[in-house]
Request: fold
Amino acid sequence: MTARPTTPPSRAVAAATTALRRMPDPFTSREADAYDRALAQAFGVRHALCTSSGTAALHLALLAAGIGAGDEVLVPALAVPMSIAPLHYIGAVPVFVDCPADGVGLDLKDAAAKLTDRTRAVLPVHLWGRAPDPAPLAAFARRHGLVVVEDACQAHGTRVGGRLAGTGGDVGCFSTKDGKLLWSGEGGFLVTEDDRIADQARALRNHYLTPPARVLPLSRVGFNHRLAEPLAAYAHGSLHRFDELLERRRAQAAALAELLSGLSRLTPITPAPGWNGYSALFELHLDQPRAFATLLAARGVANSVGTFHLAPADRRPALTVRPAAPCRRAERVIDTTLAVVVHHGHRDEDLHTIAETIAKEAAAWAP
Reply:
């Protein structure tokens, strides 16, 4: 693994600079349109739409798929709040589903037990870039007439069952916030094969100014979910080197796992073939693992629990609409998984420092 260059990718910077020089131009979407076309080609889908964030992509996808107030949506308890928030924006009801023992995907038996006559969709979340074979979920959704909206915001480049994450359902959503494999500071996008979903999402993205055929402009309330032109240009420039970015992230996660192999208090979680290595993952074998993750964050080792306060989504009062039995497997997976943040800016020496800090604190841990 080689150290990160000290300057950003020249192609992305040049593209963003060109876009800035053309500003102000309140009527153009030249860069966003070109980025949309490039994303569609990269994912092998009919439609891609860049958005102001991954959350905005989820918001648009749900509305465009016809999900609305009172509709129930099956969602994993193993998810970040940002995955669930768009359901609240539209008045839908999240119904939390537990995970299998390994934490990958949804427990479809639990999902089936929670179906009602108001269930309209399922929203899988590919946390840490891990994704299951999409075929069983697709078959489940077909049997029950459900829309599948994938949150693949951390799963750029993950491929399972012959499909890229985000392309196994009706619509897939991604984030390009800093730290993602493809980044633009802020931003996101959605991908879909469905013409109707794409038409509605495109209209809703920009205040319903560009509606579907035979529909009047501004005939529906839309949103300002556009991606700014310089950010679209930058992301488009970075997209050309995505294979390099994906290879590097996988190498970083593998290097950190190798540096920490052999420790008794944590075990590297080996990624399945095709996963993108979004985070370096370890199973913790020590008392009070959440407190340990918090200590590591204070020592400069960013991680999901200690830094971003990851907890089962069904245990967050702000996200729950009605009480339900807790999803215990999701709770166990979150509490015992150390998900270490790695990103393109980390140099080899940074990874060694992270590994040394984790090893030192694990050896001394005595809560």
User: Anything to note?
Assistant: The chain has 13 helices and twelve strands. The radius of gyration is 21 Å. The longest strand covers residues 279-284. Confidence is low (pLDDT under 50) at residues 1-7.
